Amino acid sequence: MEEKGPKEGTVPTMEGTVQKRGKSRGEDGFATAVDFLLANARLVLGVGGAAVLGIATLAVKRLIDRAARPPGEDEKPDQKSISETWEELSLTGASPKLLKRGLENSVNKSLPAVIKIEKEDCSPSSTAEVPRLEIRRVPLCVTLQEKLLHYYQSHVTLSESDVAQAKQKALDVCMEIQAFLRSKQPEMPLGEMSLGGSLFDDLQVVSADHACLLVPLLIEEKFWYFVPGEETILNTPQFWMVRRTNLEYFGRGSSYWDKFIVGGYLSSNAVNESLHKLVMGSMNWPALGSMLDCTIRQVMGSQELKLEIQQEQSQLFIDILPIIRFEETVLTSQPESKGNFENLWCRSFYTDEATKLRDLDASDSGLRLCCLKILKAVCKDQPSLRRVTGGHLVNVILHLSDTESDWSEAALADRFLQVITEVTGYLEQGFLPSYFNSAVNLLSELSAEEIDEIGYTFYCALSNPDMLLQRGV
User: Fold this and answer.
1) What are phi and psi of 450, to 5 degrees?
2) What average pLDDT does the structure give for the chain?
3) C-beta separation of 366 from 407 below 8 A
């Protein structure tokens, strides 16, 4: 007789349910018994009783699983103890208030374990190595004085190794040029060449990239007369002339320098051109650079005699500067300062200014040199201030030192702002007198547009000095 399936709408019997669950779960005896109890618990015990029975069955199953686990196997963090399991059982039959309180207690007990596990995962002893980040401590500078000192220490000062390397390289080139001139032109009366400038006077800032090779010309006093600037046709105190004298007793050719006379005066341009041909045109710079382990080439497009030396990442410029000394007077040949007047020599007070500034600092342990270096670095960093030279700043500080005696570290910010104020005032007047000759205007080399631009930048800096400490491009 053909079996008929159950009709639609009929409730399946417990026997059918057990058979179906038995087929799906296998032939395991314990599982069959559990399935039988769970399947009939709802009908026999009701909904609440079935829930209690289910939880009790789960607890028993966990006990059996724990007993069957091999010895030595670590327990998982999320496994619950027997007491915790029975606490959950007691919550099911409790009232809503007790149920809420029990849940809160359970959560409070579980939180420390979870936090402990998270701490262990984040601890350094965990197998996953977390990359360590290097944190640089940047000093917090609040006052202007602190900012100036930090700027000075981190940006202005030069390392001793860089200075020593630049000095040695400049000295090597100087010795080679002097040896070449003596062998090529032994009759040329030249004194002992020396290196000078801010690099050798501890006044260079930001980078050790500039030096000056002084080439002294030996002038016979009986043949030449030094004409002060006030006595020349230009009546400019800064520019002197050297006139040939006693031609009736000592004719032309008596002095080696007679070949450089133009209009009865020793021409600085003619001397420069002669040295340019000898030094720049005749010396084998590639061979010399190979011997000194660097690259040497002349700077094109400059009226001055200038060399560029490159070695790895460092760069050094050397100016070759002919000079004439007569008693306390030092004249230099600077084509860019003289314009089209080829017979003029520039009166230099550089050595006197640097010595005076250093003596003042030594007398009261002041920070005039520190203030000067900071201002030089500021003018070097700011494009609008690059026409301001160290000579301008030195003379402003020397003038200010006549009225201000406190140049201690505590007054550095005040003196810094005061120097800027003084510079702004000189720019407004268009006249900055030399400290050693008040008739010399040190701003005469600047155009009106350059003076306006520099004055505007310094004027803005009086209300916002931090803008000067920002490095330009």
Assistant:
1) -65, -40
2) 80
3) yes
Residue 256 predicted with pLDDT over 70: yes
Contacts of 286 (CB under 8 A, 6+ apart): 296
| Residue 142 banded pLDDT, cuts 50, 70, 90 | confident
Give the model's pLDDT for residue 450. Answer: 96
Quick: pLDDT tens for 417-434.
Answer: 999 999 999 999 999 999
Distance CA 231, CA 178 (A): 35
pLDDT in tens, 366-414: 999 999 999 999 999 999 999 999 999 999 999 999 999 999 999 999 9
Using CA atoms, how far residue 147 sits from 10, 118, 308, 461, in Å, is 91, 44, 34, 14
* Model pLDDT, residue 11: 42
Q: Which residues are within 8 A (CB) of 104 and not within 5 positions of it... i.e. 6 or more apart?
A: none
Query: Is the CA virtual torsion 91, 94, 95, 98 positive or negative?
Result: negative
Q: pTM, whole model, 2 decimals?
A: 0.69
Neighbours of 348 (CB within 10 A): 17
- Show the 3-state SS of the chain: CCCCCCCCCCCCCHHHHHHHHHHHHCCCHHHHHHHHHHHHHHHHHHHHHHHHHHHHHHHHHHHHHHHHCCCCCCCCCCCCCHHHHHHHHHHHCCCHHHHHHHHHHHHHHHHHHHHHHHHHHHCCCCCCCCCCCCCCCCCCCCCHHHHHHHHHHHHHCCCHHHHHHHHHHHHHHHHHHHHHHHHHCCCCCECCCEEECCCCCCCCCCCCCEEEEEEEECCCCCCEEEECHHHCCCCCCCEEEEEECCCCCCCCCCCHHHHHEECCEECHHHHHHHHHHHHHHHCCHHHHHHHCCCEEEECCCCCCEEEEEEECCEEEEEEEEEEEEECCEEEECCHHHHCCCCCCEEECCHHHHHHHHHHHHHHHCCCHHHHHHHHHHHHHHCHHHCCCCHHHHHHHHHHHHCCCCCCCHHHHHHHHHHHHHHHHHHHHHCCCECCCCCCCECCCCCCHHHHHHHHHHHHHHHHCHHHHHCCCC
Position 332 pLDDT exceeds 90: yes
Q: What is the pLDDT of residue 405?
A: 92
